[in-house]
Specification:
Elements lengths: L1 H27 L4 E5 L24 H4 L10 H8 L3 H9 L3 H4 L2 H13 L10 E4 L4 H10 L4 E4 L3 E4 L3 E2 L4 E12 L2 E8 L4 E9 L2 E8 L4 E4 L2 E3 L6 E4 L2 E7 L2 E3 L6 E4 L2 E7 L2 E3 L11 E4 L8 E6 L2 E3 L6 E4 L2 E6 L2 E3 L6 E8 L2 E3 L2 E3 L12 H4 L19 E7 L2 E3 L2 E3 L6 E3 L7 E3 L2 E3 L14 E3 L20 E3 L2 E3 L4 E5 L7 E3 L2 E3 L4 E5 L6 E7 L3 E3 L3
Parallel strand pairs: 2-3, 3-6, 4-6, 5-7, 6-8, 7-9, 8-10, 8-11, 9-12, 10-13, 11-14, 12-15, 13-16, 14-17, 15-18, 16-19, 17-20, 18-21, 19-22, 20-23, 21-24, 22-25, 23-26, 24-27, 25-28, 26-29, 27-30, 28-31, 29-32, 30-33, 31-34, 32-35, 33-36, 34-37, 35-38, 36-39, 37-40, 38-40, 39-41
Antiparallel strand pairs: 1-40
């Protein structure tokens, strides 16, 4: 009996070992065409490190978590030639940022959440004043006479004939009150006033700006509906520490929705509906982060669980912001890019976003072609632009991580790295059918590393090829022109472990004559590498 058990045990061990060998062989000889290309050039860093990820409790950065190579893979001479002169790299140095922090998004998100979570203690007021009057002048008088007191509006409608100026420690509970305005520049305005909370008010046109706050710390805007403004619904500018914009409905405004300009930090923009806002300029996008007219950049912001749909410009536009965390958003049907990271955007983390059907540019004329990055694009008969836009655009952007996003049906490509995209990680995304805008002049890719012709060099922007990016473990399918495209001049980008299916020309098409590591990718439509 014991002998029989030993034989059975030995047979089981043999079966398990054989099954493991069989599975390994099947994995390396799959029905699709697995093509491996690339040479062991010492500067590439293409081979994955042998060491396994550390236990979860001591993991520190995203590269070691996923056993990825270092981002900085060029030798010193190449770095001096290609990397160090770039303005986006010099910006990191000038701001004194630590690139290691950019590789630890989970830690940064937790720290921002902790700081933002402390805001509520500034809005705990024991006293309340009930406001039941009908005019903005009467509301202004109550605000002026009752600092630090909750103003509880019970009026159904208030006629606003002058901007309502807020002071420090102002808390307004709107209870759904409608603010009827006509011909005023702002409904609510504050400058240098801290601890401001506005909730549950309804603004329906008749003003240029719904809420305009300049240089204010500790802001909380929740549950408001802002429609029909001639400019923007919410503008926060200057130096501002501590911002919550949550649960608002922002639609049908004429020049964008949420506008963040200057050193606005420790912010949370979440669970908002941002829809049908007009304005073709990217500064009229659904959510804008910029340094325009300001000396400093927005940073340390979380943008999550918003629905950003059917806006005339981009869904989310970062014009030089840094350390931003874009999580779980639905970005759909916007006429320019779903998400645009440009002009020195560094340290952004995009994860679990659904980005689809963007970039059609319906009724968007192609004027200002340099600003649109489409040179000589021409127009359709209805005046709309021929040159469609991608789901995500990176232009003069470095140390950004795009992980586990879904990009489907975007008109002008999935992820487009246009100029001077350096040391970004594009990993684990699902990218499908992002070539609907293809025509005789334009064709689009699942992921593209580009080096498009330059216009005049602009402030904060270079027009070089893309360097030292990691493109790995993405699933790319559908009728892209090619699944992954590597343009002329792109150098030492690592492309590995991707699955690319059903592209028109190639699974991976590299026309660069410089070295890029392309290994261990699975495709049913081939790999073309001009370097070899």
């Amino acid at each position: 009996m014991k002998k029989g058990k030993l034989i059975a045990a030995a047979g089981m061990i043999y079966f398990v070992a054989a099954l493991g060998i069989y599975c390994t062989r099947m994995n390396s000889n799959s029905a699709v065409n697995r093509v491996e290309q690339g040479s062991p050039e010492p500067t590439s860093g293409a081979d994955l490190p042998e060491n396994q990820p550390a236990p979860a409790e001591i993991r520190s950065d995203i590269l070691s978590q996923h056993s990825l190579p270092s981002l900085e893979r060029m030798d010193q001479e190449d770095q001096e030639q290609y990397i160090q002169p770039l303005q986006v790299i010099r910006k990191i140095e000038e701001l004194g940022l630590d690139t290691n922090d950019m590789l630890c998004p989970e830690i940064a998100i937790a720290e921002i959440e902790e700081r933002v979570g402390e805001l509520d203690e500034y809005f705990i007021q024991s006293e309340m004043v009930v406001f039941d009057k009908k005019t903005s002048q009467e509301l202004q008088q109550v605000i002026d006479e009752n600092p630090g007191v909750v103003i509880d509006i019970v009026s159904e409608q208030i006629e606003v004939t002058d901007p309502i100026v807020l002071h420090g420690n102002t808390v307004i509970n709107g209870n759904g009150a409608g603010l009827h305005t006509e011909g005023v520049e702002y409904v609510f305005y504050a400058e240098g006033a801290d601890n401001i909370k506005i909730s549950d008010i309804f603004i329906n046109g008749g003003t240029e700006y719904g809420i305009y706050l300049a240089g204010c710390d500790r802001i909380k805007l929740t549950g408001n509906t802002i429609k029909g403004c001639g400019q923007k619904a919410i503008s926060i500018t200057g130096v501002s520490d501590g911002v919550i914009i949550r649960g608002n409905t922002i639609c049908d405004n004429q020049s964008g929705a949420v506008y963040i300009a200057g050193s606005v930090t420790n912010g949370l923009i979440e669970s908002n509906m941002i829809k049908n806002n007009r304005g073709n300029d990217r500064l009229a996008s659904g959510i804008v982060m910029t340094d325009t007219m300001q000396p400093e950049y927005p940073h340390d912001l979380i943008i999550r669980e918003n629905k950003i749909e059917d806006n005339d410009a981009a869904g989310i536009y970062s014009d030089g912001a840094y350390m931003g965390y874009v999580l779980n958003n639905t970005v759909c049907g916007n006429q320019k890019e779903g998400i645009n990271l440009c002009h020195g955007t560094v340290g952004f983390y995009l994860s679990r976003n659904t980005i689809r059907l963007n970039g059609g540019r319906v009724n968007d004329t192609d004027t200002g072609p340099c600003a649109e990055h489409k040179f000589g694009a021409d127009q359709m008969e209805d005046g709309s632009a021929k040159a469609n836009m991608p789901g995500i655009l990176l232009d003069n952007a470095a140390y950004n991580i795009l992980e586990n996003n879904s990009l489907t049906g975007n008109q002008g490509g999935g992820i487009n790295m246009l100029h001077s995209a350096v040391r970004n990680v594009i990993m684990g995304n699902v990218i499908r059918d992002n070539n609907a805008g293809q025509d005789g002049a334009f064709r689009f890719y699942g992921i593209a590393l580009k080096a498009e012709p330059s216009g005049t060099e602009g402030q904060g922007a270079d027009y070089t090829a893309d360097y030292e990016n990691i493109i790995c473990r993405n699933i790319i399918s559908g009728s892209h022109y090619s699944g992954i495209f590597i343009d002329e001049g792109c150098y030492i980008n690592d492309v590995f472990d991707n699955i690319v299916m059903d592209a028109q020309v190639c699974g991976i098409e590299a026309v660069s004559l410089k070295f890029n590591s392309i290994i261990n990718n699975t495709t049913n439509c081939g790999i073309a590498n001009a370097f070899q």
